[in-house]
Specification:
40% of the residues lie in helices and 20% in strands. It folds into two domains: 143 residues, 3-Layer(aba) Sandwich (Rossmann fold); 184 residues, Argininosuccinate synthetase, chain A, domain 2 (Alpha-Beta Complex). The protein has a five-stranded parallel sheet, sandwiched between helices. A five-stranded antiparallel sheet has the order 10-9-8-13-14. By secondary structure, it is an alpha/beta fold. Strand 4, helix 5 and strand 5 form a beta-alpha-beta unit. Helix 10 runs antiparallel to helix 11. The structure holds arginine (ARG).
Length: 420
């Protein structure tokens, strides 16, 4: 008896081979391609699924949803895994997974499938996503069980006359969406070797970037980018434009020796021009409008949040709770940030906000200073008292001396309060 399986279909070798393989194992295949901003003609990919033997093939446009529900949150949380990877691949998985589940419900399928191997993080993300949203569904990962090498897959594809071009295959494995591009395999597996230019697709090498700097002004509304150089646009469009401009200036190349969920260290090469630029700009604005203690506590949770995304734990109460915290910090994160691109760098060179905590009359060293510097001395005496007490303990003495106030000309704290 054949059962229906809903397959996440990218159009690549693994998922194309998976179609006849699943059929040989007694399934009818419904292919689902989710558009999260990857390049390529998705109608061609859909046609390929049908040519490879899928019973039906769906195309889901999830670009706006990806921007509004996933990228916006990751950006507000300045999410960078291990402090460096903006999580493009990881962030799209729970969205793709949810659409698989949706289609499975619509067509009455009991199984979903994906093309992930047994060594990566993506299998974890898809499987845990299904476990969270639809624990009754069975997940099949053909590439985890078929034990074919890449060459054997190519031979299998040829034997089954699959519409896949095996001529000039890239030595790399790529995954792309609106938030970034991931590359692995081939020579990238040697962490000592500089990634060759062929591994990059979105960015110019910084050495070959324009000799002229370019600035862009990013407008934020409650933590979310809403305009570029004063022109309002959707987040999806802003991310696209910044990817193009920053990429042209060589911004966003990331070379990461990464710790995978499954315990493996791997060398990953990313291009995320918009993520690098917008996270930098967002942080700069937060630095202006959020108090120190809130910034510090938020940073701790940001780190945890990035791990949750990486680890495939999107549909969990902890992710939702951190999101609620982050959201509550963003009410005042509105304003503008100027970023200057030049030969691989995206530098914040200006920021302003109606909610700025920066007070020129407190910060200035020039005329107009209203900070009461004379109050600093007493504050520092009390602030430094624990350190002074600690330092005053003499290991040989039985009782430590009472710490003395610093000798200075200014107002010295007294034991008894004085009338002012
Ligand atoms: N290592 C990254 C992650 O786990 C990216 C994996 C990308 N996949 C690929 N086929 N290049 O999120």
């Amino acid at each position: 008896m054949s059962s229906t399986v809903v397959l996440a279909y990218s159009g690549g070798l693994d998922t194309t081979v998976a179609i006849p393989w699943l059929k040989e194992h007694g399934h009818e295949v419904v292919a689902v391609t989710v558009d999260v901003g990857q390049p390529g003609d998705l109608d061609t990919i859909r046609a390929r699924a049908l040519a490879a033997g899928a019973k039906s093939a769906y195309l889901v446009d999830a670009k706006a949803e990806f921007a509004d529900q996933f990228i916006a949150r990751a950006l507000k949380a300045n999410a960078l895994y291990e402090g460096i990877y903006p999580l493009a691949t990881a962030l799209a998985r729970p969205l793709i997974g949810r659409h698989l589940v949706d289609v499975a419900r619509r067509v009455g399928a009991q199984k979903i499938a994906h093309g992930c191997t047994g060594k990566g993080n993506d299998q974890v993300r898809f499987d845990v996503c299904a476990a969270s949203l639809a624990p009754d569904l069975e997940v099949i990962a053909p590439a985890r069980v078929w034990k074919m090498t890449r060459d054997e897959e190519v031979a299998y594809a040829a034997a089954h006359r699959l519409p896949i071009s095996v001529g000039v295959r890239s030595p790399f494995s790529f995954d792309e969406n609106l938030w970034g591009r991931s590359a692995e395999c081939g020579v990238l597996e040697d962490p000592w070797v500089e990634p060759p230019e062929e591994a990059f697709g979105w960015t110019r090498p910084p050495e070959a970037a324009p000799d002229r700097a370019q600035t862009v002004t990013v407008g934020f509304e409650e933590g979310r980018p809403v305009s570029l150089d004063g022109a309002d646009d959707s987040l999806e469009a802003i991310v696209r434009t910044v990817n193009r401009i920053a990429g042209m200036h060589g911004v966003g190349r990331i070379d990461h020796l990464e710790s995978r969920v499954v315990g493996i260290k791997s060398r990953e090469v990313y291009e995320s021009p918009a993520a690098v630029t917008l996270i930098g700009a967002h942080r700069a604005l937060e630095a202006m409008v959020l108090p120190r203690d809130l910034l510090a506590t938020k940073q701790q949770l940001e780190h945890r949040y990035a791990e949750l995304i990486y680890d495939g734990l999107w549909y969990t109460p902890l992710r939702e709770a951190i999101d609620a915290f982050v959201e509550s910090t963003q009410a005042r994160v509105s304003g503008e940030v100027v970023v200057k691109f030049f030969k691989g760098s995206a530098r914040v060179i200006g920021r302003r906000s109606p909610n700025s905590l920066y007070r020129h009359d407190l910060a200035t060293y020039s005329h107009g200073d209203r900070f009461r510097a004379e109050m600093a001395e007493g504050f520092i005496y009390v602030w430094g008292l624990p350190a002074r007490t600690w330092a005053g303990i003499d290991a040989t003495a039985s009782s430590p001396a009472v710490p003395a106030a610093p000798k200075s000309s200014g107002a010295r704290p007294r034991a008894t309060p004085e009338t002012p």
